[in-house]
Design brief:
four-stranded antiparallel β-sheet, single chain, 11 strands, about 0% helix
Length: about 120
């Protein structure tokens, strides 16, 4: 079992930045491949970025250069730094573990999500 909990969501002004955290427990954090997804009301869950055990990263084209995924194995925590936020970035943001793709169904573990709201 792996438990994931997101934090750091909230209200931010358009053009601003926000950093999300995902704390993991239940097994060795360093062994996990991790990813960030988001889902807006009425929309499909959307892949944002993933980071491998090695630290190798991959981003959705639309957020590449704007979002940065990272991990701190000593703290069992993954991060998503989001810059130049837009109202369309408003969504529930989820961390996921156990997969290595851009498809949500490939991931075995999920956090409960954290709300990010970007005001104009």
């Amino acid at each position: 079992q792996v438990q994931l909990v997101e934090s750091g969501g909230g209200l931010v002004q358009a053009g601003g930045s926000l950093i999300l955290s995902c704390a993991a427990s239940g097994r060795s954090f360093s062994s996990l491949n991790l990813a960030w997804f988001r889902q807006a009301p009425g929309k499909e869950r959307e892949f944002l970025a993933r980071i491998r055990r090695s630290g190798s990263t991959y981003y959705r084209d639309s957020v590449r250069g704007l979002f940065t995924i990272s991990r701190d194995n000593a703290k069992n925590t993954m991060y998503l730094q989001m810059n130049t936020l837009k109202p369309e970035d408003t969504a529930v943001y989820y961390c996921a573990a156990g997969g290595l793709s851009t498809i949500s169904e490939d991931y075995d573990y999920w956090g409960p999500g954290t709300q990010v709201t970007v005001s104009s």
